[in-house]
Amino acid sequence: MSGQYHSMRSYSAYLYPGFLSFLLVLMMSGLVKADEAIQDYRNLLSDYRIEIQDDLTYTRIVSLEYQVLTPAGAEALQKYHYSYFSENESLTVLDASITSPDGKVFPVEQENIYEQDLGGRDQERRSRETVVIFSQLTPGSLM
Predict the structure, then answer these.
(1) CA torsion, points 20, 26, 28, 33, in degrees to nearest 10?
(2) 40 near 69, Cβ under 8 Å?
(3) Bigger pLDDT: 51 or 33?
(4) pLDDT digits (tens, 9 = 90+) for 62-93
(5) Residues 6+ positions from 141 with CB-CB distance below 8 Å
């Protein structure tokens, strides 16, 4: 997720030896899956396709899908940022939606998709980002 850094929880054996042992026992017993033990969300799809035209311009299609695992994951993914350079790039959101745990699909409303200027050397060479707000995320949701 370009332009946005998400902190991942990390645990030190020096500070939390009991917690790590307990977590390891839970994973070994099968009560907690290893990939879910300390994650707030899971990346289900990261597909990047680039189509180069004869005039050497290109179209990049990015498909991303995440599953929210915890309330903290819902909060972390609620505002998604994607950066680009306005000098030679433009960005269009083709589809943004939330699938609730019961399977209902909620499209993100257009007013929850906007662009903002991140600054740069001059008006032509500026960094911009598109922000998509996923306001109805809950654990179990897909975005």
Answers:
(1) -100
(2) yes
(3) 51
(4) 888 999 999 999 999 999 888 877 777 777 88
(5) 67, 68, 74, 98, 99, 100, 101
